[in-house]
Amino acid sequence: MNLSYRKKNDPKRQQLIPEAEQLLGSELRFEEEILLEAAETAAEKKSLEDLKKDLQTAMELELSTIPPYLSALYSIKEGTNLESVEIIKSVVIEEMLHMVMVANLINAVGGTPVIGQFTPDYPSKLPGDVMPQLTVPLAPFSIDSIRTFEKIEHPEGGLQFLSEKEKKKIQQTGAEGFTGIGEFYKAIKDAMIKLEEEAKAKGETIFIPNRNQVTDEQYYGAGGRIITVSNLDDAIQLIDEIVGQGEGTLGTIFSQDYDPQDDDYQVFGPDVEEYAHYFRFKEIRYSRFYAVTDSAHRDSPNKGLPTGQPFKVDWNAIYNFKPNPRLSSLEKGTALYDKSLEFCKTYTMLLKNINDACNGEPDLLIKGITLMYDLKYKAQELMKIPLEDGIHTAGPCFELVACN
Amino acid sequence: MQQQTHEYDVVIVGSGIGGSIVAKTLTQAGKKVLLLEAGLEAGIDFQKKEAFNNYMGYLDKFYQTAAKVPNSPYPNLKDAPSPDVIDIEAIEPCKPATNGYLVQAGPIPFGSDAWRGPGGTTMHWLGSTPRMLPNDFKMKSLYDVGVDWPFDYDALKPYYEMAEFEIGVAGNVDEQKGPDVSKDKNYGKDYHFPMKKIPQSYLDEKVIEKFPKGFKVHFNGKAHDLEFVSTPQGRNSIPNPEYPYSDVVWNEDKHKLELQSDKRWNTFTKGYEAVPDQQTTKYTPVGAVWDDHQGHRCEGNASCVPICPVQAKYNALKTLRKSDPKLITTQTQAVASKVLTDESSGDVIGIEYKKYEDPNSSVFETHIAKGKVYVLAANAIENAKILLASGIANSSDQVGRNLMDHMVMLTWGLLPEKGFPYRGPGSTTNIPTMRDGDFRKEHAACISPIDNWGWGWPKFSPGSDVENAVAAGMFGRELKYHINDVVPRQLLLHFECEQTPEPNNRVTIDPNYLDNLGNYRPVIHYSASDYMKKAFAEYKKVSDQIFEAAGVEDFTEYTTSHPDYAEYEGKVYNFWGAGHIVGTHRMGTDKEESVVNENGQTWDHQNLYLVGCGNMPTLGTSNPTLTMSALAFKTSEAILNQLKD
Amino acid sequence: MSKHTPKELDLFLNISSHLTGFKTISLLGTGMTETYFNTITAHVNPNTVALFYEACAEILALDGDNAIKDAIKNELIPDGNYAGLGKKIILMWYLGNWDNDVISAQAYTQGLVWDAAETHPPGAKQPGYDSWRERPIKVNC
Question: Where is the Iminophenyl-pyruvate dimer synthase domain positioned along the sequence (chain A) (predicted)?
Fold first, then answer.
């Protein structure tokens, strides 16, 4: 979360959209749903190897969000939903940035990031026991998809304001896992700080400077610069940047009481360079941008919802691809199978390319972007091919295939 | 008539690159500016959503227009019409061609267009930014052609550096070579461009590899080394960590504009900020006006002319957006019609402009803009037109004269193997061999870019290739294979010949030709001299030698039905306008021979400055935008010093 | 195409494949099939269109690609037949134009000419930084 550019207080902050009140009921149920889906474990990670493993999971976590986001993004008909396209696109670009930054961190602590050996089999749970109740599908752009994306990006710390009864309910179900991606990263950060302290005590460090780092020479156009890691300060900055952009460190919007004098939650507006993905998806669902005067707090006059400039969201202007496309559901040798296989090959090649780029050949990432674009055009082509059922179109299967 | 009650420090006409550089520089230095722009309000709105929607509207219009000429994405308004290449037609003797905005009196039509709207013609420029050569500033003394500039290359050098910062030039200094080019002399041994070079195309590589080192071409009776260099250009690439500067800032104590490394303008906070120490590169690519994270690299849209969809290519809106919003007032849909002067002192006392609501209605209100200093930055044709309409600044009788352009002779053929054109920026490599030499006494010099976009310019390929094949009865796989065989082998070379200043190539006005608001339409008189025609003949021979050595099958075809044709020694040549509208109010040391002094200040009116390519006494072989931008910084500095007094 | 597809749309798609040299799945992948089919309906005399599709049905029923090719050449390509519809369909798919007018923004960006020429429509489907330094991308994995 970058607050440096935000605008100061505005007397018109109390303006509300008329729909906000009536939407509020469903919004509260929605928050509750997310929280009940979540459960808490305090993961006590000790060794450097454990940290590397967790970071590998973190990278897979970032990667897992990309196919669902891309599927929704590419299903939007060209020339329509321009604002939604821009919002989802900016989120995906940042997720990829996160993935590469985590790879930088893995390299910095002497690990080997592995990309392209694993991809979720959608519909899938998120890796690393993050929000174990949440199943993420590959589906077209819709209110449901956007709600799922909000859940993925939900700010951390939600459990703190659950009632005792609700907490008990979760404990009884025996669910384990992290309440959100933010909490997952917090555990990593804590472990990392601890490990570095232990190493420092012995006159050592867990960090290797300038090891296989991808820099902004290779990665560009994301909200924020890519961070390279040579020491603990860099590493903390990197994790804060990821958590800030993704789910926001605004967990307190749910745990602290709303104070109308405090403008800490006024974090929006056209001059704010970027704000958490969770809120960006909310903008799509309410087809309005956040106004400069809006607060992120759910007890604020705007109930934490966007009340700014409206924009058009046309939920029907989509290619209605059949959710969760799979290669195995297609008949081998058909033209559609061949086209789908070609997509999978491109996806496999792309991950291989990113893997190599994050393992000492950073310049390869430049070509990776060419592959990214190619992947997009292939996905869009598939989504235009009608299926026999007369309702759906074909869609991209994000699967890894043999590469020879 | 309504009198403007506001008083500004400076009134600027035009939001193209010239006007935008002046507006940005002056407001950042604390001056109050009024900017008049003839085009629509929507094009200058910098709010994220509005800017994005407007630009996507341009892009959509580009997609939907059949003839994708440079002006095609942009609105052409009856109240502020733009010259458009689509209007060019052959001129019958003694009968001006009036099809379009320009009145073409001939004998041949002026072949270039411009756009009158927010951002000006940089919205559709290609983006090539080679500097002029030192010898270009001394054409009269060295070659007895044209005139000398009022200063030499070294005087402009610091301003070139500012222009390269502002535009964001990507290039490799070490690779710049050719006649009259050496790194030390032209750039300084430690100089770098802000960004690394734009990669040269696969097509460039396929052409270059055909020529062994030391290969010579013959023209004007002599052998010359054929060389290829990467073209510096105003599109985003990888920031160069060696580049030290973060912004151009006015130093009040030294009375100078300076490139420096400590602070930079922040378009979010609208103020200067310190550059963080840990930042490895001082230069950050400037992204799209609606989203600074977009367009940090050229993405290979291959549509720079007419529109870069991601704004990775520089346009003047990027500079205008850096103006201090507290100090700039913008009036759009405001067409400057007349400069008013005080008869006794000669000082300018206001600029009359016509404000319209509906761009196609002839209803308007007249206003007068008032300031201490006035700047016309409306492009070379419009500046001349406004001065002539006002009857001012013309004691030299040079206003409107010496209209110049690069006369571009194109040659095209098929490579023996696929070079895969229609990809990447319009041009990434040029041949500098013909840019300077003794031959300039006898015929024009030229720069010769390799075009990355096949035969698109002269032949409307690849659409015409499909149409011709289908007309000939091809269909099915035969058609597909034919297109696949021919189009990827297309090669196009430009020979962009430096036109010399001729007093009778000129912009005039005539009360018989008025536009929708009753403003004058420019009347253009234009011809090609023998100095140009001889160059065509020599360079066609150069093209023949290049094609032969590279195994390129020549498909070049010149006809007398092409509106811009020339005959020389019994042969016909065709040429095209480069969009480089230059001359018309040249600078000089002598008020009898020039309109403005070395700072762009008119000799006749101490508080009137002219900005733009109209100031250039000669054209050189460089695309003129960079040089014009350098001059605009020089003028900005002069204005700041004048306002101090 | 699905079983819900009208017969004439199916004929249009299949004859388009023979006229353009592109597989039907590639034509479907442009998303333009129905738009182009409707463009014909909107611009051409209904009797001519009906006769054209009748001819297409007969031609497509022929045995073997060569027979189909010969029949197309003699029946659909000559300018005088079916108001020149055969050639117009090719130009529509390749260029996105009908009588020199761009049918829509999508029609321009989906033109087959760009694929045939191993490139992309200028201003759309950009391939990314540095792509032009190498041959067009080919997935070989």
Answer: 55-285
